[in-house]
Amino acid sequence: MDRIYRRQRHVYDLSRKYYLLGRDRLIEGLDPPGGGRVLEIGCGTARNLIAVAHRHPAAPLFGIDLSREMLDTARRRVERQGLAGRIRMAHADATRFDPALLFGVPAFSRIFLYYNI
């Protein structure tokens, strides 16, 4: 994954602009309960997590991705937005990870995947 996204991560969001139909509706519809945690699988550059943070300001947010390169970009974006205290991300495979070991939380109230090819 890192070989693929090493260069692409810098233009990834620009290249996906026209493929994000329904993203805002999905984010609004997450409607996490009070104290509920939200996980994005394949968080990429954190574009969606940042949007969720603005739409649902009380929810603790988490993201996982297979690409360390994308996570590097995501962490910088989250820090620039001042959201490092609310958004935690980790390198992980969605088919086999333990939220307690990875993030120290038992589970998530909402999980979403919004991947566009």
Characterization of the model:
This protein has one domain: 3-Layer(aba) Sandwich (Rossmann fold). The chain is built from six helices and four strands, in the order αααβαβαβαβ. It has helices at residues 2-8, 12-16, 23-30, 47-55, 68-80, 99-103; strands at 38-41, 61-65, 87-91, 110-113. A four-stranded parallel β-sheet has the order 3-2-1-4, covered by helices on one side. Helix 4 (47-55) links the parallel strand 1 (38-41) and strand 2 (61-65). The model has no long low-confidence stretch (mean pLDDT 85).
Entry keywords:
40% helix, four-stranded parallel beta sheet, 117 residues, Rossmann fold
Radius of gyration: 13 Å
Structural class: alpha/beta
Number of strands: 4
The arrangement of helices and strands along the chain is HHHEHEHEHE
Low-confidence stretches: none
Helix content, binned percent:
40-55%
Mean pLDDT: 85
Give a quick account of the main beta sheet: strands, pairing sense, barrel closure. 4 strands, parallel
| Tertiary shape | globular
| CATH C-level label | Alpha Beta
User: How are the strands ordered across the major sheet?
Assistant: 3-2-1-4
Nutshell version of this structure?
By secondary structure, the chain is α/β, with parallel strands linked by helices. It has one domain (2-113): Vaccinia Virus protein VP39 (Rossmann fold). Helices cover 40% and strands 15% of the residues.
Secondary structure layout plus pairing:
Layout lengths: L1 H7 L3 H5 L6 H8 L7 E4 L5 H9 L5 E5 L2 H13 L6 E5 L7 H5 L6 E4 L4
Parallel strand pairs: 1-2, 1-4, 2-3
